Amino acid sequence: MESEIPPWKRGIKGVVGLLQSSFAEMVVIGQAKNRHNPLPPLLRGNFRLLSFPIQEEDMESIIIIGHGSPKKNANTMDIVGGLLHTAIHPGCTKDCVKAAYLEFAEPDIMGAITQCVEEGAKKIILHPYFLNSGMHVTKDIPETIDEARGLYPQVEMIYTEPLGIHNKLIQLTMERIRAAQGFLPGQIEERSMEIISEETALAGIPEERIPIVKRVIHATADFEIGQSLRFHPEAVKAGIEALKTGKDILTDVEMVKSGINKRLLSKWGGKVVC
Fold this sequence. Notes:
It is a single chain. 45% of the residues lie in helices and 9% in strands. By secondary structure, it is an alpha/beta fold. The strands form two sheets. The protein has a four-stranded parallel beta sheet with strand order 2-1-3-4, with helices on both faces. Helix 1 (7-26) runs antiparallel to helix 5 (167-182), helix 3 (109-118) runs parallel beside helix 4 (135-151) and helix 6 packs across helix 7. The longest helix has 20 residues, at 7-26. It is globular, with a radius of gyration of 21 Å.
């Protein structure tokens, strides 16, 4: 039973399930008949499939709209978009799902819409990633979309309901409460790694690669991704040597930068460049 699964194991999966069920109800996602593969086992069963199919040409682009924050590492709509893209378009290499922000962060809503149009989108689905239908959802965002409709009349733009009141949100709230009552953050991560070890086929993976594989699984909530990872035989050794000799880490993703232990890296003379 789902209620018996510990919260530290279901947290990320629960978010994916929430995204799926929300879009199934709000955007009317049916049985997709396009180039994409069926949903992987982890993600099946959450869509409420409706009676008519969605053809490839019907679903051009999706924009997930967040409020935005002056705190850079709080702007995580790109991660939400990536989870949704993986859920509905597994294996797709196109930029089908984009993130946008109402304020404080880039791209803004008009910028994301313009990018979709420039990439040839004929239909854009815009989802406000907000809990309630306040002024932002009912006035500010619709005004920007109306302006975009005037600029790009050839493009169909569909504006969905916000997350709103949903049983998946209640489940997620309960998980957060249970987790806070029984475990400290470090304990939750430790237990998560134990579960990954228990449920993932790690046999045959060289010992020095296992921590990396487990970390990737922990970050993606994909228990099968470990079988897809490929390493150069000298990759781990070379990476450790580079760090210990003071080499910098270069990334173009703010969330990756935020997740790196800069205090430990600085002991070796390196820094993170983004």
